[in-house]
Amino acid sequence: MIRHAVLFKFKRDFPDAEREAWIAGLDTMRGNIPGMLALTHGPDVMGFDRSFDYAIVTDFESAADIDVYNTHPLHEPLKLYSLPNSEQIVSVDFEISKDQS
Question: What's the whole-model pTM score?
Answer without folding.
Answer: 0.92
